Amino acid sequence: MTKPQKVSLSEAISQIQNGDMLTFSGFTIWRRPMAAIMELIRQGKKDLHLVMVNGGTHDDMLAGAGCVKIWESCWVGHELYGKIGGNFSRKVEAGEIICEDYSHVQVLYRLTAGAQGIPFMPTYAAMGSDILNPEYDMLGKAGLRDGSNPKIPAQKYEMYKDNFYGNETVLVPAAQPDWCIAHVNMVGSEGTVRVLGQKYSDEEAMKAADRVIVITEQIVPEEFIRREPERNLLPPYLVDYIVELPWGAHPTGCFGAYEADGAFIKDFFNNTRTQEGFDAWAAEWIFGVRDHEEYLNKLGVSRLETLRASSALGYSPKVKRGSR
Question: What is the pLDDT of the chain when averaged over all its residues?
């Protein structure tokens, strides 16, 4: 059993190869590893295969940069700040991304099967919908279910009549990504992982992946994080690389640390509806800064302090909320 390596963000992302299958922590605009997403783009990663319970700002950004070849999920958008992923939609319509549609629960069960080391999971989800229409097996239509890629199952799903009660159900194949990139609140010095607030499908995603990169707001003494083992999510032996990177989820939020930067996400959504718009935005915010530290300096202390959560409340009292 080897201990996880503490590395820089650029070192961690350099381990990911073109064509690798990736999954991520978080949910829509919460605890997405956005600094890693921008570093993937800076390093020019291509032909990535994304599989996740739901999309968000992170995969829309990767799509706009031309990093994505295959996408398997149920939805992509920015919640209140942009209902659809404009970059993703544009690339799918142009035939540049193969979009394999599963229901939300189906993708969760695929990762659950991968985490448990079993080949499939049964579910009733999406029965009677076009998700199970053979005409929309997009990986199959592209000729990619031929066994040449061990990460792509031979079938999108299989209908099955169980032998116990005689009910028809759907078997969805396990997903076992090459990598999970996760952003978390804290990691012990030996690699124990803790998430505050909702954990979403993080445990399934991390355990399903062959290798795990954990990006954390802070590294704390292992003795401290093990005082309350029931609050911890993942043991050190399941982690490969640790990157200590405060604000590494911005512009998405990290419960207990900072809010989602809604204005930033809305600006991204509004200004990247065309490829020219995305390229201009990326030139400023991704390629116009050398690394995450320069990115934070560009954002400015005042903006970040407005987003910072109160340690007592768990959220920022300075962020203006919606009103009717």
Answer: 96
